[in-house]
Amino acid sequence: MIHPMDRLPLPLEGITVVAVEQAVAAPFATRQLADLGARVIKVERIDGGDFARGYDTAAGGLASHFVWCNRGKESIALDLKDPRGLDAVRRLVADADVFVQNLAQGAAARLGLDAATLCAAHPRLVAVDISGYGASGPYADKRAYDMLVQCEAGLVSVTGTPEQPVKAGIPAADIAAAMYAFSGVLAALVRRGTTGRGGPVEVSMLESLAEWMGHPLHHAMHGGTPPARTGLAHAVIAPYDAYETGDGGRVLLSVQNDREWRRLAEQVMGRPELGTDPAFATNAARVENRRRTDELVGKALGALEADEALARLEGAGIACARLRDLHELAEHPQLAARERWRQVGSPVGPLRALLPPITMPGGDDARMGDVPALGQHTEALLRAVGMTDDRIAALRRDGVAA
Description:
Blueprint: E1 16-20, H1 25-35, E2 39-44, H2 64-69, E3 73-77, H3 83-94, E4 98-101, H4 107-111, H5 115-121, E5 126-131, H6 146-152, H7 172-195, E6 199-204, H8 205-212, H9 214-223, E7 240-244, E8 250-254, H10 258-268, H11 283-288, H12 290-302, H13 306-315, E9 319-322, H14 326-330, H15 333-337, E10 341-344, E11 351-354, H16 378-384, H17 389-397
Parallel strand pairs: 1-2, 1-4, 2-3, 4-5, 5-6
Antiparallel strand pairs: 7-8, 8-9, 10-11
């Protein structure tokens, strides 16, 4: 048991990150670093900043993507095409531990901000290049947006119904790349702690999402056929689907073995004979007779209200869940009971935000800082790298800084 006076600091206290970033992949990665205590300096364009700022106005007038991915950062707005703006970034990088960028392929190298160049100049620096398809190969210069990469990685081919493939409802390729960039930074910092050297980290959206495709990919490569698209149903397990209840709700259940099927038949469906019926007694039989299996389960649950159906399933030891919409997620009783919600500041006032899922008992809570306005910290950061007030004023006058 850690004494209150011995509480551990956040693990990235004292780490400074400079990020030339936009959209989701890099910003979501660096937000994880900020939540764990790192100081994150976000370099944005002077003409509107990170283009994710303009995606929508759903979060009290701010863009929901931007609010999600950018709390706890300091924003400096610079024109990197001007040598003076680029010089300011290089000054920031000189004092940083980590640099992250996800500019269009080749853009960082033209500016001298690619990982290889920066690490050669700063051996202790961990520098991350996030790209769509990697720095080499025939797709290196191909535009890479989340849905495009979902298609290239085969995710869309296994998501949806038999009649219609669909994209994931979240930016899965962006998130996958972000999380590998995040873990790559942590690994490189651990290595620096033992060797004294940082080094480049490369992450591509395609390779990240291809790794996440492991189960269907291996199923297809080694089994010969890819898993079928089955909507909410499981391709190789039955019953494993969502069923409508009598009050219009939807309950998803998962039967993992034949013992559970027998309990479902007896305790929930009231049809104990189905537990030993050769047409349903094994998973292989239930998959072969999926339509009839689903009809029987659906009829039983359709006679119950959602709360009663869930209670019976829980009582029988059957894994189950309520099919919730996003408003119901925001009020989820488990998140409330575990006190996972906080408020963060923003240019439009306080906004609700979830604590990050990495919890470290005995340490400080995640640092969930404010969502910055564009260029909110420009002046302070330029002063911190040695620029005089007159020089800062000239940069603003000439449109190099905002």
